[in-house]
UniProtKB/TrEMBL annotation:
One of its GO terms (molecular function) is phosphatidylcholine lysophospholipase activity. Keywords: Signal. Residues 38-197 form the SGNH hydrolase-type esterase domain. InterPro entries: Ester_Hydrolysis_Enzymes (IPR051532), SGNH_hydro (IPR013830), SGNH_hydro_sf (IPR036514), TAT_signal (IPR006311). Residues 1-30 form the signal peptide. The keyword Iron does not apply. This is Arylesterase. Pfam families: Lipase_GDSL_2. CDD domains: Lysophospholipase_L1_like.
Length: 214
């Protein structure tokens, strides 16, 4: 009985030692546990694509390739706007180390007031930062053929929030993908698998940097 009790104590002690001792896998486990959420719309939700080819899965793979292991969790709703996302930002913040805010496409399609877009984005970023989440703001720019005062104001909304809130910023997440038939599905709006690859490769280095500072 004494030997059995000693063996049990030894196992418990060894397990406790593994849990706290440096260099025995704890760092790797912590790295895997890092959580990146994407607060977005149909692109984040993977519209028209299997989950394995959608942005969250591809971004996670790109992060691993860069040596920044993390679990990427999607919070994308098809058709969502900055206003809609503001109502669910707290869920995207739960247990997140980093949150990528990737919104604006539906605001643009609806001709939303850029002032309202900026106000919503600002509120989203503030809420995330208040929860201790590192933010990456993925901007969106109006296509060149639609340039004008509205385009300037809309484009400026993202840059303004990034500057005032001092967060990592990607000026145009969809650069080179928008209106490119080779990188979009038949609807001409949603990226295909190749388009998602372009987006993920653009996001990954910035998200990896955010993870390093989170």
């Amino acid at each position: 009985m004494t030997n059995l009790n000693f063996s049990r104590r030894a196992v418990v002690a060894a397990a406790a030692g593994l849990a706290v001792a440096p260099g025995l896998g704890g760092t790797a486990q912590a790295a895997v546990a890092r959580r990146v959420t994407i607060l977005g719309d149909s692109i984040t939700a993977g519209y028209g694509l299997p989950a394995s080819q959608a942005l969250p899965a591809i971004l996670q793979g790109e992060l691993v390739r860069l040596g920044a292991s993390a679990r990427v969790v999607p919070y994308g709703v098809v058709g969502d706007t900055t206003g809609g996302a503001l109502n669910r930002v707290d869920r995207a913040a739960a247990d997140a180390d980093v949150c990528v805010v990737a919104l604006g496409g539906n605001d643009l399609l609806q001709g939303a007031d850029p002032t309202v877009v900026r106000r919503n984005l600002d509120a989203i970023v503030r809420r995330l930062k208040a929860r201790g989440v590192t933010v990456v703001l993925a901007g969106l720019r109006v296509p060149p053929l639609l340039q004008g005062s509205y385009a300037e104001a809309f484009n400026g909304a993202f840059a303004s929030v990034a500057r005032s809130q001092d967060v990592l910023f990607i000026p145009d997440m969809l650069n080179g993908v928008v209106l490119n038939p080779l990188l979009n599905q038949r609807d001409g709006v949603h990226p295909n698998a190749a388009g998602v690859q372009v987006i993920a490769r653009r996001l990954a280095p910035v998200v990896a940097r955010a993870l390093a500072t989170a």
